Amino acid sequence: MEFKINMAAVLVSVVANYIIGAIWYMPLFGKIWGREMGYDPNMKPDKKLMYKGMIYMIIGNFLFAWVFAHNTEAWRFVPGMNEMSTFSKAFSSAFFTWLGFYLPGFLSSTVWERKSWTLFFINSSYQFIALIVVSMILTYWR
User: Fold this and answer.
1) In this predicted model, what pLDDT tens digit does every residue of 98-142 receive, in sequence order?
2) pTM
3) Is-contact 81 75, C-beta < 8 A?
4) Could you tell me the residue ranges of all domains in the chain?
5) 90, 65, 56, 67: which is closest to 12 by C-alpha?
6) pLDDT tens-digit profile of 67-82?
7) Taking a C-beta distance cutoff of 8 angstroms, is the pair 11, 113 a contact?
8) CA dist list (Å): 28 to 68, 96, 141
9) CA dist., res. 34 & res. 109, Å (int)
10) What does the H/E/C string look like for 62-112?
11) What is the separation of C-alpha 89 from the centre of its chain, rounded to a whole number of angstroms?
12) Cα(5)–Cα(120) distance, integer angstroms
């Protein structure tokens, strides 16, 4: 068996993750997230800092999608996976990645960094949704 990484799917995943993040952290939960992070709602961010953040976010989204493409491919080697539907494969890859790699970090930061449980739910649910969407793109568009 060989690993097939569809770079077009990876790039579409980067764009999808960017859009999800923009919706999640602006109109849906932007005000609550900002309050929980301790940001002044009246302060406008520096444009230079915003552009720098967007560039780093796109780089991070690319690394996330590219590595996750390898992760979703690796699921093909798990015994019994060929009998599962494409949806089940994609969901399993996303859920177990979130459960084992993202959720523990969010739990730790909530306790050790004294972040709120509201922030925990906003951030961890965003990562879960992003993982599911990206996993679906990468799995269906293999």
Assistant:
1) 999 999 999 999 999 999 999 999 999 999 999 999 999 999 998
2) 0.89
3) yes
4) 7-140
5) 65
6) 999 988 888 788 888 8
7) no
8) 26, 25, 28
9) 17
10) HHHHHHHHHHHHHHHHCCCHHHCCHHHHHHHHHHHHHHHHHHHHHHHHHHH
11) 17
12) 32
pLDDT of residue 1: 63
Packed helices 47-74 and 117-140: angle between N→C axes, nearest 10 degrees? 60
Spell out a b/e string for 35-44, using b for 16 or more CB atoms within 10 Å of the CB, else e. Answer: ebeeeeeeee
DSSP for 27-64 reads: IITHHHHHHHHT--TTPPPPHHHHHHHHHHHHHHHHHH
Distance between CA atoms of 129 and 131, rounded to whole angstroms?
A: 5
Render pLDDT for 18-65 as a digit per residue (tens, 0 to 9). Answer: 999 999 999 999 999 999 999 888 888 889 998 999 999 999 999 999
- 8 or 89, greater pLDDT: 8
44: which 2 tokens?
A: 């406008």
Q: And the tokens for 14? A: 């980067």
